[in-house]
């Protein structure tokens, strides 16, 4: 796909104008927010893909490696990875298969459940995910394209939306130590 410059008009603003012109006044703001979020996701994913390309990682493969890298021993049950990544089990299985094939993680039998598998980060997987994280931090996360205040506001707004959509609940307070 050939690179192109900015469009001369905001297509989402034009779509909203059309929604209003067609009498869909109640739906126009919602259409604008949904399509704006989807477009922002596309823009951010393009930046992520560019940062991860030198490492031959997709974002899904990176997330799995980073998740394992965050654990104390670089290992976790596959079922836990599926729950934390919030994607379909088949997608996780395909991602794991590729990472195993590339020698970045290993599958081991679960110590207590013979039907389950443990995912284990290899030394080369840890080295790769650490380098990829450095690239994402410098090329994407450190400067997401918003001011610090806009970033904080947007995270709060989206968190409220996610929570009201049933994506997560507030953690229960932990008891005071004895």
From TrEMBL:
Keywords: DNA-binding, Transcription, Transcription regulation. Pfam families: MarR_2 (PF12802). The keyword tRNA processing does not apply. Residues 30-163 form the HTH marR-type domain. The keyword Transmembrane does not apply. InterPro entries: HTH_MarR-typ (IPR000835), MarR/SlyA-like (IPR039422), Tscrpt_reg_MarR-type_CS (IPR023187), WH-like_DNA-bd_sf (IPR036388), WH_DNA-bd_sf (IPR036390). GO terms for biological process: response to stress. GO terms for molecular function: DNA binding; DNA-binding transcription factor activity. It comes from the Bacteria. PANTHER family: TRANSCRIPTIONAL REGULATOR, MARR FAMILY, TRANSCRIPTIONAL REPRESSOR MPRA. This is DNA-binding transcriptional regulator, MarR family. It comes from Microbacterium pygmaeum.
């Amino acid at each position: 796909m050939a690179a192109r410059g900015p469009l001369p008009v905001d297509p989402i603003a034009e779509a909203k104008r059309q929604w209003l012109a067609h009498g869909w006044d109640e739906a126009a703001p919602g259409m604008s927010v949904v399509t704006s979020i989807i477009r922002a996701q596309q823009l951010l994913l393009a930046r992520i893909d560019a940062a991860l390309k030198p490492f031959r990682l997709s974002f899904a493969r990176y997330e799995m490696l980073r998740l394992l890298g965050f654990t104390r021993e670089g290992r976790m049950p596959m079922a836990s990875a599926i729950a934390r990544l919030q994607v379909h089990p088949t997608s996780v299985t395909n991602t794991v298969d590729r990472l195993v094939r590339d020698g970045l993680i290993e599958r081991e039998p679960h110590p207590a459940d013979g039907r389950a598998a443990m995912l284990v980060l290899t030394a080369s997987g840890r080295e790769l995910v650490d380098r990829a994280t450095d690239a994402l931090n410098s090329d994407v996360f450190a400067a997401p394209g918003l001011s610090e205040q806009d970033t904080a506001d947007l995270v709060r707004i989206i968190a409220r939306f996610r929570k009201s959509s049933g994506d997560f609940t507030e953690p229960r307070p932990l008891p005071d130590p004895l």
